[in-house]
């Protein structure tokens, strides 16, 4: 098979379009795929790329298509619904599987296919986008500085930009579901935002960029444990302190947020908005990442990082990984980005800056 060709499923989604448009700059030629023929064909004509139409529920047709490719980059969420049929088809056809999820249940589900994927000599690598490449690399970077760490805290915050339909839809599906941490090696359910803290996200020496953050169920609750083995993990995101105080009451309304009435209203509002942030908004946007590890003696090591906005970063990082896999650089079975490609994978993405690790 050609080492510059792969299948991009969900190519007509907001992030899928960004990946498709950027692929040529990495010397890659995706075959665009999805179930919406009109949208897929229109994009294929615009970019002069081949395309295929298939629904994930048509197992036979999906396997027939995948058998022609050594790799699929799966960009069609919500991944709690779409990942399993694609993973199973990839194992059956010996096709490497990559996706851009950040959903804890998807990572945990994919781990269950580790042996089957290894037996098929393929790699299952979910989370090759903003979820979770920067944070996974930060986790490994810090754990190497403090090998006996027993606590890992990771935080991220976005400046500018906005949400795509896919990301917003995933968030709505999580309404009322609460949060999660890893405690003594086990994933534990917690209220959303059960902890809050101020974080200095600055990557410039002697400067401070303090933002308030709260705990959320980010994908690293699953992936960072695989990457580092650290048994206690918390993940945070930036939020206004006033909003945080309001969210502390969410548990009172969780039953309401889970109802189809509320969720259908939210889906309707999402569909009425643009597919995602404009090119101008993304160009002005950026993301910040911070991490801290601590051992039983109380020693702390931390670092910060600035990266492109989440959507642009996802397009770059996913294509970087595609290129590596097609060149034969992969590990079979279930993997995480930093576990395969190291803590400096994120440094290959343009405009990334990372502070040296420091105590305190």
Question: Summary?
Answer:
This protein is of the alpha/beta class and 360 residues long. Helices cover 40% and strands 24% of the residues.
Q: What is the C-alpha radius of gyration, as a whole number of Å?
A: 20 Å
Structural class category: alpha/beta
Main sheet specs: 8 strands, mixed
User: What is the overall number of helices?
Assistant: 15
The CATH architecture classification of the largest domain is: 2-Layer Sandwich
User: Can you tell me the overall shape?
Assistant: globular
The CATH homologous superfamily of the largest domain: Dihydrodipicolinate Reductase, domain 2
| CATH topology call of the largest domain | Dihydrodipicolinate Reductase, domain 2
- Helix-residue proportion: 25-40%
Low-confidence runs: 161-176
Q: Estimate nothing, just give the exact number of structural domains.
A: 2
Strand content: 15-25%
What do the pLDDT scores average to?
A: 88
| Separation of the first and last Cα atoms | 50 Å
Counted beta strands: 17
CATH class of the largest domain: Alpha Beta
């Amino acid at each position: 098979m050609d080492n510059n060709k792969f299948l991009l499923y969900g190519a007509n989604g907001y992030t899928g379009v960004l990946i498709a448009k950027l692929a040529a700059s990495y010397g890659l030629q995706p075959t665009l795929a999805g179930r919406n023929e009109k949208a897929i064909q229109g994009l294929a004509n615009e970019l002069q790329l081949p395309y295929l139409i298939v629904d994930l529920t048509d197992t036979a047709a999906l396997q027939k298509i995948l058998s022609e490719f050594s790799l699929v980059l799966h960009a069609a969420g919500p991944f709690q619904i779409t990942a399993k049929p694609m993973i199973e088809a990839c194992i059956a056809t010996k096709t490497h599987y990559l996706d851009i999820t950040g959903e804890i249940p998807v990572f945990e589900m994919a781990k269950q296919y580790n042996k089957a994927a290894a037996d098929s000599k393929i790699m299952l690598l979910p989370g090759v986008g903003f979820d979770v490449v920067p944070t996974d690399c930060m986790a490994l970077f810090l754990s190497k500085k403090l090998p006996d760490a027993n606590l890992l805290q990771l935080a991220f915050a976005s400046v500018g930009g906005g949400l795509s339909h896919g990301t917003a839809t995933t968030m709505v599906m999580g309404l009322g579901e609460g949060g999660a941490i890893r405690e003594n090696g086990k994933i534990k359910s917690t209220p959303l935002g059960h902890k809050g803290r101020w974080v200095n996200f600055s990557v410039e020496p002697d400067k401070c960029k303090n933002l308030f953050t709260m705990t959320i169920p980010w994908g690293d609750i699953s992936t960072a444990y695989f990457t580092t083995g650290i048994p206690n993990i918390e993940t945070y995101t930036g939020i206004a302190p006033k909003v945080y105080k309001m969210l502390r009451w969410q548990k009172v309304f969780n039953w309401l947020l889970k109802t189809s009435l509320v969720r259908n209203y939210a889906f309707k509002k999402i569909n009425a908005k643009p597919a995602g942030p404009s090119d101008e908004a993304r160009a002005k946007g950026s993301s910040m990442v911070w991490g801290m590890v601590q051992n039983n003696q109380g020693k702390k090591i931390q670092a910060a990082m600035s990266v492109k906005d989440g959507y642009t970063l996802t397009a770059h990082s996913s294509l970087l990984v595609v290129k590596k896999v097609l060149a034969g650089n992969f590990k079979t079975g279930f993997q995480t980005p930093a576990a395969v490609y190291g803590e400096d994978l994120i440094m290959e993405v343009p405009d990334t800056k990372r502070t040296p690790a420091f105590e305190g």
